[in-house]
């Protein structure tokens, strides 16, 4: 296949810039997708800047990919040309371990292949993500997107949506559960919408007073500032679950103090720093911390269907590919309401 347009980081200290990449010719099980929109996840920024220490360059970020099917391998029967489809954080896995057999490919024993900043299972070539004009992906890792959903606003469901849906389902959040969502950003705003749709009583915990009205609009029943000691004191021992989506170091002891006895803090945020936690924050009230990463392919499709049923999409601001560095700078300043989505027409 000819080279295609993309945007790449060449090192942790360089701005993203135009770059040409090659996609494979679609094999029998492949779907060739014309990328129309790609969400900008905080993980793109962490990895482009080398904050997690695992970055490989050149890096073409982007794992909230939506577009239209333009070509299909001969064995593909799940899709037809013109379908709206999505690709999330994974493009391959071993397909034979215990977790792959349960369609929990994100926990593949051999390590699933990340959509970018990963290596292809067989060829070991670097994978390149959605900041590009098109992508070729095995059908197992391609999701159907309902025509009922706005395609651009559905893009963030592929990471922010599934990352918050999967642990809420895992702990079986149900009507009447008291759930707090910490951090009103890309993940947090999806966490609020999904937990509300699951019937929970949802409190938004934030550092930003200006987000109170938005939290209410998104469906949160209550809002509190973690920077206000009086509000924090009154919320001690209040929540069954806290979905922690914060991307930087913060006071974990304070957050754990808000859980009820037997409560669980679900970590989905990935600050690059260590988490210092005192045993006394957990032991006396049998509290726990649960980590969770994205979701498997079956569950991602289930989440997309749930969102179509409940009419849930992301709140987005559409940007041009050329404005990605401005978007990253604004994300770092906590100035996103609530997900940037790149219009890939700007790259073509
Ligand atoms: P984001 O849009 O930048 O949101 C992060 C939120 O954290 C902000 O909106 C802000 O909310 C809060 N925050 C910022 N500075 C803070 C501070 N100093 N103290 C407390 N809270 C602060 O990022 P995102 O895309 O949602 O991603 C969030 C994290 O999840 C990132 O670390 C990302 O890498 C990770 N992630 C994990 C997975 C997974 O599979 N587990 C998947 C995707 C992303 P307020 O203004 O409301 O305080
Ligand atoms: Zn992500
Ligand atoms: Zn596996």
Describe the structure.
- With 348 residues, this protein is an alpha/beta fold.
- The protein has ten helices and 17 strands.
- The strands form four sheets. Strands 3, 4, 5, 8, 9, 16 and 17 form a seven-stranded mixed sheet that branches. A six-stranded parallel sheet has the order 12-11-10-13-14-15.
- Helix 8 links the parallel strand 13 and strand 14.
- The two termini are 16 Å apart.
- The mean pLDDT is 97.
- Bound molecules: NADP nicotinamide-adenine-dinucleotide phosphate and zinc ion (ZN) (2 copies).
- One zinc ion binds next to helix 2.
Topology:
Blueprint: E1 3-8, E2 17-22, E3 30-40, H1 42-48, E4 65-72, E5 84-87, E6 90-92, H2 98-101, E7 113-114, E8 134-138, E9 143-144, H3 151-154, H4 160-170, E10 178-182, H5 186-197, E11 201-206, H6 212-218, E12 222-225, H7 229-234, E13 239-244, H8 252-256, E14 259-267, E15 288-291, H9 297-310, E16 316-320, H10 324-332, E17 339-343
Parallel strand pairs: 10-11, 10-13, 11-12, 13-14, 14-15, 16-17
Antiparallel strand pairs: 1-2, 3-4, 3-8, 3-17, 4-5, 5-9, 6-7
Helix pairs in contact: 4-5, 4-9
The structure holds NADP nicotinamide-adenine-dinucleotide phosphate (NAP) and zinc ion (2 copies).
Residues 41-43, 46, 159, 163, 183-188, 206-208, 211, 245-248, 250, 268-270, 293-294, 331, 334, 336 line the site of NADP nicotinamide-adenine-dinucleotide phosphate.
Poorly predicted spans: none
Q: Work out the radius of gyration.
A: 20 Å
End-to-end separation: 16 Å
Q: Strand portion, in percent?
A: 25-35%
Q: How confident overall, as mean pLDDT?
A: 97
Estimated helix fraction: 10-25%
């Amino acid at each position: 296949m000819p080279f295609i347009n993309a945007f790449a980081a060449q090192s942790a200290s360089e701005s993203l810039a135009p770059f040409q990449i090659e996609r494979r010719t679609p094999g029998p099980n492949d779907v060739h997708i014309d990328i129309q929109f790609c969400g900008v996840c905080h993980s793109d920024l962490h990895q482009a800047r080398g904050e997690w220490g695992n970055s490989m360059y050149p890096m073409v970020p982007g794992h909230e990919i939506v577009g239209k099917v333009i070509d299909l391998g001969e064995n593909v029967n799940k899709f037809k040309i013109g379908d709206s489809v999505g690709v999330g954080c994974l493009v391959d896995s071993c397909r034979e371990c215990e977790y792959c057999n349960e369609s929990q490919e994100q926990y593949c024993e051999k390590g699933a292949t990340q959509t970018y900043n990963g290596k292809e299972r067989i060829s070991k070539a670097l994978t390149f993500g959605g900041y590009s004009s098109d992508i070729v992906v095995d059908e197992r890792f391609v999701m159907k997107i309902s025509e009922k959903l706005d395609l651009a606003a559905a893009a963030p469901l592929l990471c922010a949506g599934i990352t918050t849906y999967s642990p809420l389902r895992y702990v079986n959040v149900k009507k009447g559960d008291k759930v707090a969502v910490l951090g009103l950003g890309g993940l947090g705003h999806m966490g609020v919408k999904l937990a509300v749709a699951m019937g929970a009583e949802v409190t938004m915990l934030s550092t930003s007073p200006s987000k109170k009205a938005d939290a209410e609009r998104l469906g949160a029943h209550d809002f509190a500032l973690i920077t206000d000691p009086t509000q924090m004191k009154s919320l001690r021992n209040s929540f069954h679950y806290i979905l922690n989506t914060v991307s930087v170091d913060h006071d974990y002891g304070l957050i754990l103090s808000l859980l009820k006895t037997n409560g669980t803090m679900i970590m989905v945020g990935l600050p690059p720093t260590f988490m210092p936690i005192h045993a006394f924050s957990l032991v006396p009230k049998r509290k726990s911390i649960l980590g969770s990463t994205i979701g498997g392919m079956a569950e991602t499709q289930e989440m997309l269907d749930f969102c179509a049923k409940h009419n849930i999409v992301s709140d987005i601001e559409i940007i041009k590919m050329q404005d990605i560095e401005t978007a990253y700078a604004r994300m770092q300043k906590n100035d996103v309401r609530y997900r940037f989505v790149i219009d890939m027409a700007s790259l073509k």
